[in-house]
């Protein structure tokens, strides 16, 4: 009898102690556990779960608490209690401010979170205010009506699943497939119109890529429809968790595919644009940008997949940043070359196929890579110049010249009469004017001085073509015409020599050549040489 009396006396105390242990809101972990524990089927006490909501009547608090759990269950959001912090002063740092709050699912449901008010943790005011709209988005208005019209036979179970849910699932997939077909046609039509507006043509290769891009876009719309409508079937938390995990994985994979195809389309359009520009450095930028953007899409996609599997990417990125810093310090040359590459593409000191002089290297730019630039010299050998060094060198870009300048001196014999010097200079000028590859408005042919063994006639001309081969061909034709002119005029080119002169040598004639300075003959020779030069190029315009 005494034992029974003691039991009646201790029962209220034990009950109070049990409540004080279970109804605990001292930490985020305790509050979330209290809310979810007292809404389980085997421990269903909604009044105790409602204590996690502050400022409402008991009836309203119970309604809100139940709806919070139903929203989480409907979206398949399983709360892993091992991840919920047990620190009573836990701070969630966002931006430049920090708050005493914990967001259960920051990626998929950031509106639901607990916050510290006084000494206890409760569901936030924002969560309470938004739970109605969240509930309606997860369980639309037609759900209650469907529940009312489902006959009793619809609640029969097949493989532990109610019949109406199986029928609803089939209808859901049929509607998703119809939406997929409709959106695919619309997406392809819109993308094709955009491509034609941007590129102004109907490139078949781009059309194929766009058609492939329309396919995953329509799949994403269909998945979004399933994601929106599936909670209406009211499957359990476990089923919803796995279904939404599969949907999110599929959605992420499709988004990766869409962005990879989008990168391909953009790079193809950009490639067509660069083909119409004069410089070819942009052409080299296309594959580099394509590789870079593809890498970014894949890395971001993998991080998104890791988040779905519960991996803390913040910690991983922080670790990768520290490791990346250490790696960068260990490979400073690689980083410097990468920065040099960026500077080359920003400044554009040269283009592909430009002839440049960079320090001791002279040749044609063939390729600009991430780390180095290839320059092919005149002897066809390849120079591999690190971009960090190339970005610091003084670069003489002869490929950006407006014209190719050619300057030389022609040496005439010292005994050439002034009349023939004038005639020779005049004739060379006429040849330059008649030459189709030289600028007739900018040249110099002058008797400029006295050399050690010759009278110097400067010839300064500008060739129109920037191609090295065309320049050499133009020089050849100019030189041949000048040699013919000198021969017809009777003018000799000088070469280093020593002459001994004996003024009085009995019965001997001097060795000096006899020059014909008849003006009429000179004019005829110049006209004939220039005429012959023009006849050699009948199809070319004289400028």
From TrEMBL:
Signal peptide from the UniProt entry: 1-17
Positions of transmembrane segments: 166-192, 213-230, 242-263, 284-307
GO MF annotations in UniProt: mechanosensitive monoatomic ion channel activity
Coiled-coil features, chain-numbered ranges: none
Cellular localisation: Cell membrane
Limits of the Mechanosensitive ion channel MscS C-terminal domain: 408-492
One GO cellular component term: plasma membrane
UniProt entry keywords in alphabetical sequence: Cell membrane, Membrane, Signal, Transmembrane, Transmembrane helix
Membrane topology, from the record: Multi-pass membrane protein
A family per Pfam: MS_channel_3rd
Family matches, as InterPro entries: LSM_dom_sf, MS_channel_C, MscS_beta-dom_sf, MscS_channel_2nd, MscS_channel_C_sf, MscS_channel_TM-2
Domain Mechanosensitive ion channel MscS, first and last residues per copy: 333-397
Family, as annotated: Belongs to the MscS (TC 1.A.23) family.
Protein's name in the database: Mechanosensitive ion channel family protein
């Amino acid at each position: 009898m005494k034992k029974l009396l003691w039991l009646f006396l201790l029962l209220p105390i034990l009950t109070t102690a049990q409540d004080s242990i279970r109804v605990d809101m001292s930490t985020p972990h305790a509050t979330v556990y209290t809310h979810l524990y007292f809404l389980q089927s085997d421990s269903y006490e909604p009044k105790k779960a409602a204590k996690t909501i502050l400022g409402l009547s008991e009836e309203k608090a119970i309604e809100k608490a139940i709806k919070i759990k139903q929203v989480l269950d409907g979206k398949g959001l399983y709360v892993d209690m091992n991840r919920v912090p047990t620190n009573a002063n836990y701070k969630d740092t966002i931006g430049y401010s920090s708050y005493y709050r914990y967001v259960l699912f920051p990626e998929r449901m950031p509106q639901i979170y607990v916050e510290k008010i006084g000494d206890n943790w409760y569901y936030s005011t924002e969560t309470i205010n938004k739970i109605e709209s969240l509930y309606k988005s997860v369980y639309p208005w037609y759900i209650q009506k469907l529940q009312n019209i489902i006959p009793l036979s619809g609640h029969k179970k097949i493989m532990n699943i109610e019949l109406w849910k199986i029928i609803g699932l089939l209808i859901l997939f049929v509607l998703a497939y119809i939406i997929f077909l409709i959106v695919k046609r619309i997406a392809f039509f819109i993308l094709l119109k955009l491509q034609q507006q941007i590129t102004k043509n109907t490139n078949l290769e781009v059309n194929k890529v766009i058609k492939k891009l329309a396919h995953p876009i329509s799949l994403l719309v269909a998945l979004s429809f399933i994601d929106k409508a599936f909670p209406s079937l009211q499957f359990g938390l476990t089923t919803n968790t796995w279904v939404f995990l599969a949907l999110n994985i599929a959605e992420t994979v499709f988004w990766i595919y869409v962005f990879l195809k989008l990168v391909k389309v953009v790079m193809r359009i950009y490639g067509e644009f660069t083909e119409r520009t004069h410089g070819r450095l942009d052409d080299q930028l296309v594959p580099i940008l394509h590789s870079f953007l593809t890498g970014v899409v894949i890395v971001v996609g993998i991080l998104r997949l890791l988040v779905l599997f519960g991996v803390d990417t913040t910690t991983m990125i922080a670790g990768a940043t520290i490791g990346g810093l250490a790696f960068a310090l260990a490979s400073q040359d690689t980083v410097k070359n990468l920065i040099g590459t960026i500077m080359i593409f920003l400044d554009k000191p040269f283009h592909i196929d430009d002839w440049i002089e960079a320090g001791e290297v002279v040749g044609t730019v063939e390729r600009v890579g991430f780390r180095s630039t290839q320059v092919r010299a005149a002897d066809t050998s390849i120079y591999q110049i690190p971009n960090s060094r190339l970005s610091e060198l003084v670069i003489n870009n002869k490929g950006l010249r407006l014209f190719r300048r050619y300057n030389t001196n022609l040496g005439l014999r010292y005994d050439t009469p002034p009349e023939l010097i004038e005639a020779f200079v005049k004739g060379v000028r006429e040849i330059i004017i008649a030459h189709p590859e030289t600028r007739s408005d900018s040249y110099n042919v002058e008797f400029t001085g006295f050399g050690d063994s010759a009278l110097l006639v400067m010839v300064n001309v500008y060739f129109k073509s920037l191609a090295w081969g065309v320049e050499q061909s133009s020089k050849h034709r100019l030189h041949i015409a000048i040699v013919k002119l000198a021969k017809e005029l009777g003018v000799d080119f000088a070469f280093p020599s020593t002459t001994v002169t004996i003024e009085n040598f009995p019965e001997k004639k001097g060795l000096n050549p006899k020059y014909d300075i008849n003006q009429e003959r000179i004019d005829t020779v110049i006209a004939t040489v220039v005429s012959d030069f023009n006849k050699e190029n009948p199809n070319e315009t004289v400028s």
